[in-house]
Amino acid sequence: MSPLLICAIVAGIILVLIVLGVLLYFFALPKFILHKIRTSPNPDGEMTFPENYDEMKSKCEIVKDLVYPSQYPSNAYNVYLPSKAEEKIPLIIWVHGGGFIGGTKDGGENVMVALCSAGYAVASIDYAVAPEHKYPTAVRQVSEFVSNLPELFKKYPVIDENKIIFGGDSAGAQIAAQYVTTQTNPGFAEEMHIPVLLNEKIKATVLICGPFNLPAIRTYAQKTNKMFRRLVDIWGRVYFGKLFWYKNAAARQTVIAEHLTKDFPPTFLTDGNKGSFEAQNRKLALSLKELNVPVKEVYFDLEKGEVPHEFLFHLHEQNSLYCMEKILDFLHRI
Description:
Layout: H1 3-39, H2 53-58, E1 60-67, E2 76-82, E3 89-95, H3 109-117, E4 121-125, H4 137-147, H5 149-155, E5 159-169, H6 171-184, H7 186-192, E6 202-208, H8 214-224, H9 226-240, H10 249-253, E7 267-270, H11 278-290, E8 295-298, H12 318-333
Parallel strand pairs: 3-4, 3-5, 5-6, 6-7, 7-8
Antiparallel strand pairs: 1-2, 2-4
C-alpha cells in the first residue's frame, strides 16, 4: 500500500470522526440533554401544599383545558375563579416556567389556588417550547392569548377587564416581563412585531425566580465552569436556534432592563438564594427604581439556610408561605 493511499485513508477516517463529532455535539447531544431534562424528576419544581389547602381550593371554581386561538400548539389554559365573587375582580395571567423547553400550566396549581382563594381570577397558560418552537414563539403566544381576552371577559363577566396582572415563574417570569415590556414600550413592541393591546390596563407584575438577562447567564458560565458553559451553549442554541446565540440581536431583546420605560407597572420580585437568579432580580429592581416604578422585593439570607429556585411552589414551607403573604399584600395595595 503506497504512502499516499495510507495518508488518504487516515485523512478520510479523521474527516469521518470530525463529522460524527459535529453531528453528536450539535444534534444528538442537545436532544439527549433535552430528553433527560424533560423526563428527570425536578425536586425544586415539585408542588407541596399548606395544611389548609383543601379549604383554599373549596373557594375556587377551576375550569381546565380551555383553548385560545394560536398559530402554534400548546395553546390551552386553565381558569381559576373565586366561587363567591360578588363584584369585579382583577385577572392574573400566569406564564409557567420550565427553562423555555418544558413545563405546563398545571405545574403550579397550588400557587394558582392560593391566588384565587385570596380573591383573584387566574388564567394559567400553556405555550409552545423549544427546540420545536424557538424564540420568540412563547412571547407571541402570550400576545395571542391576550388577543382572546374579550372572549374570556364575555364568558366570565366577573373579571375586571381593566385590571390585568401578569405573573410568571422562572422562564415564565422572563416571558411575562418581556411581554409587559412590549405593552409599555411602543418602540420595543414594533421591534418584536407584537401589538400593544393592554398598556394602562396592566396594573402589576409578579415575577418569581426569573432570569431577566439571558446572555448574562452565558457570561457567568464562562467565568465559573466550562461544563456549565457547554450546557448553557447547548440550551441557548436550542432556544434561539443560533450557534453564537449570546451575540445575536434576538438575545438582547431578552435583556429586560434595556427596554424598560417609566410606564412599566409596579412589580414584585423574589428569588431563592441558591442555584437561581437573585443577582439578576436585584439588578432589574434597580433599573425599575431608577424609572420610579414601585418595586417590592423578597430575598433570603443564605446564612439562615438555602432557598432553592422555584421555592414558592413548596407551600408547606415557611419561606414560601411568607413570600405568598407578601405577594398578596403587594397585590391588595396595588
